[in-house]
Amino acid sequence: MTERKVLNKYFPPDYDPSKIPRLRRGDRRKQFNIRTMAPFNMRCNTCNGYIYKAKKFNSRMETAENVDYLGLRHYRFYIRCPLCCAEIIWRTDLESGDYVLESGAKRNFEALKTAEELEAKRQAEEEEELANNPMKLLEKRTDQSKQEMEMVEVIEDLKQLNQRQATMEADHVLLRQMWREEEAVKEAEKEADDALIKELLASKSEQVHLLPLEFGGENSSKPIRIPGS
Question: How is the chain split into domains, by residue range?
Fold first, then answer.
């Protein structure tokens, strides 16, 4: 039974690596068939059909010539419109970290991308102006210092407010505790008074005297005990 993995190879005594024929490298622009996805929303120029981002395609990829950024290669992709089979071409753009649509379609407007580009452009112009204008740089530093002082004041105010609220909360707790104690004392006194009244009523019998219609007669008033008293 032969080995599945050959670990040792035989080299004859007359082995000469220079005599081994080398394979010729093909054209650097050789295209490869790969599976890719649309990098952005686009609209076909031929049929006006929309192609949405992340839609999968069978594409051809090649190395873009005469396009270089920091010695890195750019790649070009060829796809077919799913509606009219027109060819659409785009390539990578390493400088901006995005893709460039070369032909066959038109990229849809992207508000977020445009806003980011405008913000980056504004920041670059501001940095250039600060580098060329020392007074402008001094004004910016002064404004930053002023904003920092204002922020410190706001933070201090918030801290003081939190401390006051914490103190007020403690005071409220004490007041509630005192009020509860006073209510408990009043309730105890009321219960003691009620118990005393009941005790007095129970120990002393209440008598009611019925008077006759005419005073001074033979029938004098007699005490009558009320049942249950």
Answer: 25-108, 110-182
Q: Is 85 annotated as a binding residue?
A: no
What distance in Å separates the CA atoms of residue 32 and residue 78, rounded to the nearest whole number?
10
Span 54-108, pLDDT tens digits: 899 999 999 888 888 888 889 999 999 999 999 999 999 988 888 999 999 999 8
Residue 44 marked as a ligand binder: yes
Q: How big is the CA angle at 27 (ends 24 and 28), to the nearest 5 degrees?
A: 115
Cα separation, 221 vs 211, whole angstroms = 5
- What is the tens place of the pLDDT at every residue in 176-214? 888 888 888 888 888 888 888 887 777 765 544 555 555
Q: Which residue has the tokens 């038109």?
A: 106
H helix intervals, 39-133: 111-132
pTM across the whole model: 0.46
Binding residue per annotation — 47? yes
Q: What angle do CA 183, 189, 194 make, to 5 degrees?
A: 125
| Residue 228 Ramachandran class (φ > 0 left, ψ -120 to 50 alpha, else beta) | left
Q: Among residues 83, 101, 88, which one has the least CA distance to residue 47?
A: 83
pLDDT tier at 135, thresholds 50, 70, 90: confident
